[in-house]
Amino acid sequence: MGTLRGRERTRKGWARRGAVSALGGAAVLVSLLAPPGPRPVPAAASEPAFTSVNYAVAVDESASLAPEDMKAEKAAAARIALGDVSSSSNVTVFGFAAAESGGQRAVDPVCPRTTLDAAGRESVGACVGKLRGRKKSEGTGTDFPSAIRQGVHDLSTGTDPSVPRVLFLLTDGKMDVSGSPKYGDPAHREAEGERQLELELKNAAEQQVQIWPLGFGPAPDKKQLDRIAAGGFQKGCVELPSARPKASKVSGAKDVGPMLEKIFAAAHCLRYERGPSNRPPATLEIGISPLATVGSIVVDKGDPEVTVTYLDPSGHEVPTSGTYRASRFELAGAGGTVEALKIIDPVPGIWKVKAEAPEGHRSLPVGVSVLWQGELRGSITMDPPSPQAGEKTTVTMRLQTREGYEIKDPDDYAGLRVRGELTGDGFAPLALDLTDDGKGTDPDGSDGSFTGSVKIPKSADGALKVSGTLTASGLSADTRSETGQVAPGVLPVTTALTLRAADAHPGSSVTGTLAVHNTSDTPHTLRLSVADLQDGLLSVTPAEIELKPGESGTREVTVEVAPEDVFGDRLGDDGLRLGGTVTVVDTTDDDRTLVRSPLSVQVTPEPGIWEKYWWAFLSAAVVIVLAVLAVLAWLRQRRTRRDPFGLVLRLVSETGDILGEHPAGHGHKQWYEFAVVEPHRSPRIERRNHGPYAVQRSPEGGAVLRERGGRRTRLPANGQVPLTDALSLALGEETRTRTTRTRTTRRARPSRSRTDTSTSTPTTTPATGEGGSSSTYDSYL
């Protein structure tokens, strides 16, 4: 499972937050599928037993090692010891080269057998520092037989043979015992070395010690390393090819640690993911699977001055010891070049590792990786659960967590092997082929549901049992079984349950129908229940159904979801998909199982006010926007309606004669200010800022006259108001288009003298401001 895949899944729903999805069923994969928060089952009550391993690390100290190679070997040995997820594993570490004179030793013990609890992890991280490159005077050959002999002795003395025994052999070359007197005369030392290597490999196999060689340097002998891997014990922690010993080769010192971690994970049945590396200060991201029950984030700091902080997928900084939000933490190696944070019940998703260092300690890159382990369980069903002899039955094995959360992502169960078998009275066991490829009886491929069909032998005459075994590297193996009975003929009661996959909120329910047919002349009682799911998450009602003799019809069945406080914070933003099995049993017919139907319910958090009433909020927002627009339009219209532009102001004499007309321009704050000039000789209206008079339109029609001093008088469209003792103001006909033409024509004519007042056409004075400047009206024209 790569970092990019893990990151994409978290941001969309790995995430999108450790969120989990998969097919319904009864399988259980012990893991924390939730964000931090309360859990209905206390962690201590459900903590799995993490598989331990006894292992030894043999590190080549021969003179051919470059200083950077030795440094890489030491860091690699510390990485796997610190990163082990089991507190009951044991490790020994020793160096080896060759004894080429008296007083020299081929093997150099540095870490005695150490149990990898909190204290042990710290001590191993320190003692690997004793590994060193040999000087010429200390014996510089490569004595593989002595190294293997020491490893087998350490692993087989005083240890439980049921615990896997693994020897990791780190070397940069091929066997060289040419300078070792204990292998006889120089001419025969190579042959004697090969003979003793064969003996030690045979002994390793007899003592059930696996050997995993790791070669590095310019020219490791890959053929010899393959021979060593094949010569030891071959059975691994699980019966999968990935757990069988094999030799590996790295191209340089920088790859020794990651490659050793990878083969350590394979030998220990752990999952391994290598993350990015960068120079500090840096923030590195690493994904932890939703199936992980325990994991270790291993940080190769390179420089002990580097300090590291850890952030969970929710962005919370977690402690390095103790309990935080239902997870438990334990840090080892903080003062060295490698440290590891062990997490029990880790929050799934993308974790961040922040690496910081003082000036002068930022030249080496910091790398991050994760080792984790989960517990795999399964759920198996037959459909129909009570088949007749000669009838086909469909067998389905489904994957879930212990709480009943479905698992769909194929990367979570990569390398999974599923084996099934049908046994029963009257016939020999039959192998079942269960697949998840979307072919044949399997409806959907890669969905965590493994399906196959089998024909019940005609000789079957009693009990039936179908069993399935799930095996995957990094996930503890599990065997599940389901019992049934061969139907003696047509059953007195038959049923068919319809419960489709549905979405629901905590505290809500999902309805379905149960078709029932009682062909007998006696009443029957059916019992309904939900299995393969943590108690209390889902329940079915009614719990019992009474069938009358001969009754045929349908009954409503309701599946109720637990309240939100039962789920705590585990729902997250995307919710959880619960899977279980609804079982219908005929208690009147010796508890014969009539139905075992998969159940799948997507439980999402109760929507908030916005999710519930978004349409109302949106409608209200639209109404508010429209109202604001309407008010703005009204204000604009009101302003436009009061603007005096276009009003024609007439001066009227006492006798009612029109002495002149004046078109008003745009007003100042909607008031057009003017004055009457030469009122006794040749009266006319001129625009004048701060003049004694001002007009503005009236929304009711006509205009309003404002005189100096603030007095306002209504000027009707067909009326007039006095300005002076001899002059009044009236409104003329407002015709903007005509006015425009008049102005244009008038400009084309020669100007008349002011004394020409005998014409029958009233004089129109341009609306100019003080000083004779053009008015807004003139500009408009």
How would you portray this structure in words?
There is one protein chain. The protein is α+β, with helices and mostly antiparallel strands and 781 residues long. It is 19% helix and 34% strand. It has twelve helices and 42 strands. Strand 5, helix 6 and strand 6 form a beta-alpha-beta unit. Helix 3 packs antiparallel against helix 4, helix 3 runs parallel beside helix 8 and helix 5 packs parallel to helix 6. The chain is flat. The N terminus and C terminus are likely disordered.
SSE order and pairing:
Layout: H1 3-12, E1 29-30, H2 43-46, E2 54-60, H3 67-83, E3 90-96, E4 107-115, H4 118-127, H5 144-156, E5 165-171, H6 189-206, E6 209-215, H7 222-231, E7 248-249, H8 256-268, E8 271-278, E9 282-288, E10 294-300, E11 307-311, E12 321-324, E13 327-332, E14 338-344, E15 349-356, E16 366-376, E17 379-383, E18 392-398, E19 417-424, E20 430-432, E21 449-455, E22 463-472, E23 475-485, E24 493-498, E25 502-504, E26 509-518, E27 524-531, E28 538-541, E29 544-547, E30 552-561, H9 564-567, E31 576-586, E32 592-603, H10 609-642, E33 648-652, E34 658-663, E35 672-677, E36 684-687, E37 693-697, E38 703-707, E39 712-715, E40 720-722, E41 728-731, H11 736-748, E42 763-764, H12 776-780
Parallel strand pairs: 2-3, 2-5, 5-6, 6-7, 16-23, 25-32, 34-42
Antiparallel strand pairs: 1-16, 3-4, 8-16, 9-15, 10-14, 10-16, 11-15, 12-13, 13-14, 17-18, 18-21, 19-20, 19-22, 22-23, 24-26, 26-30, 27-29, 27-31, 28-30, 31-32, 33-34, 33-41, 35-36, 35-37, 37-38, 38-39, 40-41
Helix pairs in contact: 3-4, 3-8, 5-6
